[in-house]
Amino acid sequence: MQFELERLGVHESVDQVFPSAELSAYLSDLPVDVVGDEAVPDCDAVVTLEHREAFLEVGWVHSVQAGVDRFPFEEFESNDVVLTNSTGIHDRTVGETVAGYLLAFSRRLHEHVANGTERRWDQPAWDDAFTLPGTSACVVGTGTLGSGVADVLGALGVSVTGVRRSGDPVPGFEEVYANDDLLEAVADVEFVIVTLPLTDETHHLIDADVFEAMDEEARFVNVGRGPVVDQDALTDALESGSIAGAALDVFETEPLPEESPLWGMDEVIVTPHCAAFTEDYFRDTGDIVRENVDRLESGEAFHNRVV
Question: Can you give the pTM of this predicted structure?
Answer without folding.
Answer: 0.96
